[in-house]
Amino acid sequence: MRILSAEETAALLPYPVLAESIARVLADHARGQITAPERLVVPLAGGATLLLMPAADPTITVTKLVTVHPQQHPSVRAEVWVMRTDTGERLALLEGSVVTARRTAAVSLLAAQALAPNPSGPLLILGAGTQGKSHLEAFQEGLGTDKVYVYSRSFEHAEALASYARQRRMLAQAISALEPALHEASLIVCATTSQTPLLFKVPPGGFIAAVGAYRPDMAEVAPQVVRQARVYVDTLEGACSEAGDLLQAQVDWNQVKPLEIALQQPRPTDGPVLFKSVGHALWDLAAARLAVQRLGMQ
Length: 298
Hints:
Helix 2 (15-30) crosses helix 3, helix 2 (15-30) packs across helix 11 (281-294) and helix 3 (96-115) packs across helix 11 (281-294). Helices cover 37% and strands 23% of the residues. It has 298 residues and is an alpha/beta fold. The strands form 2 sheets. It has an 8-stranded parallel sheet. Strands 1-6-5-4-3-2 form a 6-stranded mixed sheet. The mean pLDDT is 95. The chain folds into 2 domains: 2-99 and 282-294, ornithine cyclodeaminase, domain 1 (2-Layer Sandwich), CATH 3.30.1780.10; 110-279, Rossmann fold (3-Layer(aba) Sandwich). It contains 11 helices and 14 strands. Pfam families: OCD_Mu_crystall (PF02423).
């Protein structure tokens, strides 16, 4: 069994190829070839939580183990176990936080490739943490994005991510107010842990990938923006129970389309378009498939 470091895990999961792997997983899931039950959440002493996220196809099986201990540093630890479906042989142990960061950004990239009315325009990122950074990388590598605005409640953090973007030869600017960038950006990523909405306006042809809010009591996108947008989600089952942005806007779920179906339809010609992602073990399976393939184990 290979035990992979964070750096080794990242090297196995380039964003454009990972997005393609996710698309194949969605197609296989639609054909009934993948099993992926809801995640199991186990409360632990002291307010901590254990999460187990399994998925299996005929060749490999994965389980992501995540522990959340709010008082510890780091507060979140995760690993992805990869094994052969037919024998149970352990093949690899991937660094879980890297898998989560990269597969989440790759899902957003796939959605933008399929759904953004103007995928070549400038990017606005709300949030300068791990997900902000991974989305910046993914959109540059997968869409050719070369201009980015970064907004954070900490201007210092926004400038740090903008500086990183400039090191990657992007035109990048940290901003302290959203309004000017909203007139130019055609791609928007919301990647914060805000409890209350931050995005109250969106350009008519804009594409929003909202990935930060993961509980019903959290929302990054204001209800009025949600209601004026075409709404897509990574999976309906996850969004219906966890997507606070949509739940608080009281969306008509009959009008919300999962990515699995959206990939089979023409690109929207106008917007705004909102893609809401809350995560799923399917994306971990896609990452594991790619990793074992690149390791020569499949």
